[in-house]
Specification:
Blueprint: H1 7-16, H2 25-37, H3 45-55, H4 60-67, H5 70-77, H6 85-95
Helix pairs in contact: 4-5
């Protein structure tokens, strides 16, 4: 699997803008301007799931016990089948994230 974000761009962003607490209105305004340059694109639930799998070193085989069968897992990861609300809840519980990440 390939990573779903550009590490070089992220590294450049971190070098330019070290994460810190925003304490003044001026700092807030500066962050808003930066957000225009580094806005995130919309991602599909499948892309979110793929990223979470990569980040947590899970494989498609690890999802079989959560989502049902290897056929279901394959179709979900290939974008051929949408993640159901029940599956989204299961994934959210497993990966400790909001189930809404997995719903279009």
């Amino acid at each position: 699997m390939t990573l779903t974000f550009d590490q070089a761009t992220y590294a450049d962003l971190l070098m330019e803008m070290t994460p810190k607490v925003i304490e003044t209105e001026a700092e807030y305004e500066k962050v808003l301007v930066e957000a225009e340059y580094y806005s995130m694109k919309e991602v599909s639930p499948t892309e979110v799931l793929t990223h979470i799998l990569e980040a947590s070193y899970f494989t498609a085989a690890d999802l079989v016990g959560l989502l049902g069968s290897s056929d279901v897992v394959s179709e979900v990861l290939e974008g051929k089948q949408a993640i159901t609300k029940v599956q989204a809840q299961i994934l959210g519980d497993r990966f400790k994230v909001s189930p809404s990440l997995f719903i279009d």
